[in-house]
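Protocol step 4 of 6: structure prediction from sequence.
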Amino acid sequence: MKKYTYPPFLQEGDKVTIISPAGKIDKSFLKGAKKVLESWGLEVAIAKHADGESGRFSGTVKQRTADLQTAMDDEQTKVILCSRGGYGAIHLVDQIDFTRFRENPKWLLGYSDITLLHELFQYNGYTSIHSLMARHLSVEPQDDPCSLHLKNMLFGELPSYQSPQHKLNIKGSAKGILHGGNLSVLNGLRGTPYDFPAEGTILFIEDIGERPYHIDRMMNNLKLGGVLEKLSGLIVGQFTEYEEDLSIGKEVYEMIADMVKPYGYPVCFDFPVGHVASNVPLICGSETELTVESKGAELKFK
């Protein structure tokens, strides 16, 4: 299995740069996130075009690329927080130079469309954190568990997560490298250099607003491409804001369970990750251990 480099964990006074590499965002969420991060003892900078607008995007491709590249090249920046997802990160993937980043690695934070950037970082050999973004920091209370998990993780205190028992869980224990994120985004990277490696991977997936037959199609893509059979384990997160369509004969979780049952590795359903308030941070590219028992599931970072 490929080993990924961890950027340094934080110390008080370290710098966070907030960027908007995809969709445009309400300025109030940038201000709210800045306030919370400063309460953690961090210095916060907002990138030049983070509050901009160009159609549905926060800026042109050139502007968004410049903000990400500048943050990656900045020796003082230790964390890059993506303000939101939406759509647009795909435009940046083949534009980024890691030369100076390799001298001063830093954490990338975000989820949803930011899955693209996580895969870019893993392609270049670095871990990153699939996590909440600016709106969550702005609207949730400061004692919000997911925010506290992220704070602790950034300062080097790695959690273990427990997920309640689910009737579709498949028992077992596995060690592997954690990869994943938004299923639609991952599906869009199939056949590219940025696709995640299947062998030795504990995969986590989530999605929003996708019709059940679309999810079925994407899961079949992973099956027919030989991905599902090579995984070490699977974590099925939250699939939200869709209309249940029993014309395919099964609910979404049931469809996924039936598809992966033949492989024998542990599978956890209803894990708290996705487009929901309970969206725990996960270190993409980290060595992890997934244990699924009758009482529930546990995910540990090694």
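Step 5 (inspection) to follow. The CA atoms of residues 231 and 241 lie 27 Å apart.
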